[in-house]
Specification:
Blueprint lengths: L4 E13 L10 E21 L1 E4 L2 E4 L8 H13 L5 E9 L9 H16 L6 H16 L5 H8 L3 E3 L6 E2 L7 E6 L6 H14 L1 H23 L3 H17 L5 H12 L4 E5 L6 E6 L2 H12 L5 E6 L8
Parallel strand pairs: 3-5
Antiparallel strand pairs: 1-2, 2-5, 2-6, 3-4, 6-7, 8-10, 8-11, 9-10
Helix pairs in contact: 1-2, 1-3, 2-3, 3-4, 5-6, 6-7
């Protein structure tokens, strides 16, 4: 029997290394971003289902095109469970900025799916959740890497190669990561198509860039295990240069990266699809991270978050 109110939640993610090359079978490293999350609430009601999500509040089936993947996955879940799309309302709240490469679309889908299964009192296993989130992500991104789905379902750092079993990637680094928002929506689908076009037009160089990005990801895995944060920073910088050549960076990203490096960061790069979205910056101490974060805010960043990468600084 359905409940009067049910909940589902999901967290965001950050790609540390491996953007774009992961689509071509190279490895990537992704980490959960628990300070930004989505929460979905489902309330029992009467009549047609109402969706209250971000800027929209109205009938689910009349929601605008930007909610097409959410509508589709909600309808699919209801059909799969042999239930009816009526007599309940859906409320979604988010602290993950959308279209910033932080996994917002996958998190919205996962939280809604979890809430629906909870509402209809049906056990949801990770395989089913993965399949449903992937269904939604294909609508959004066309040819998604699968990283966002893996992170929102498993909520653990991952070393990921498309088509292969996921490897939980445990690490502790005595370092801090700044995530800075360019204020510009990332364009993952367009960025993926730009990379594909670059490879078609420049097959030899394109192959070299993709393989180099993959090697940086595999090297970063070893570097992280050995806790060599200076080397990780260098790998991030090298990755940014390659991504820039693939034409998925832009002036805003380049500016925030430059500000980070000029102010003492170990490394800085775009995260996610690029062409907007967010920049990640590696710092050796919390004090340095706070200082660089403030400088970024004074030089174009619209928002910043500071993430401890596993080892708290001794503040005594």
């Amino acid at each position: 029997m359905d409940k009067k109110i049910s909940y589902g939640s999901a967290i965001g993610k950050i790609i540390l290394m491996g953007e774009h090359s992961v689509v071509y079978g190279e490895p990537a490293i992704a980490i959960p971003f628990p300070s930004a999350k989505i929460k979905t609430s489902i309330y029992k009601s009467n009549g047609d289902t109402v969706l209250n999500c971000f800027s929209y509040n109205g009938a689910l089936l009349e929601a605008p095109e930007e909610f097409s993947e959410l509508k589709s996955v909600i309808k699919k879940v209801v059909e799969d469970l042999d239930e009816k799309l009526k007599d309940f309302n859906i409320d979604i709240k988010s602290t993950i900025p959308s279209e910033r490469g932080m996994g917002s679309s996958a998190a919205v889908a996962a939280s809604a799916i979890r809430a629906l299964y909870d509402y209809f009192d049906i056990r949801l296993d990770n395989n089913t959740l993965t399949s449903l989130v992937n269904f939604s992500e294909i609508i959004v991104h066309g040819n998604p890497s699968g990283i966002d789905t893996a992170i929102v379902v498993g909520e653990k750092p991952l070393y990921y190669i498309k088509g292969k079993p996921l490897e939980v990637f445990k690490f502790k680094l005595d370092a801090y990561l700044i995530v800075s928002d360019t204020g510009e929506k990332g364009m993952t689908k367009f960025a993926v198509s730009k990379v594909r076009k670059f490879i078609e037009d420049n097959p030899a160089r394109g192959k070299e860039l993709i393989e180099s990005l993959g090697k940086l990801s595999s090297d970063a895995k070893k570097i992280i295990k050995e806790e060599k944060i200076i080397e990780l920073g260098k790998a991030m910088n090298n990755a940014q240069n390659l991504l820039k050549e693939l034409r998925v960076s832009n002036e805003t990203i380049d500016s925030l990266v430059r500000v980070s490096i000029d102010n003492g960061a170990l490394g800085s790069k775009l995260t996610g699809g690029g062409l907007g979205g967010c920049v990640i910056t590696l710092c050796s101490t919390k004090k340095e991270a706070i200082s660089i974060s403030n400088t970024l805010l004074n030089n174009g960043a619209k928002n910043t978050w500071i993430s401890n990468m596993g080892v708290e600084e001794d503040e005594s």
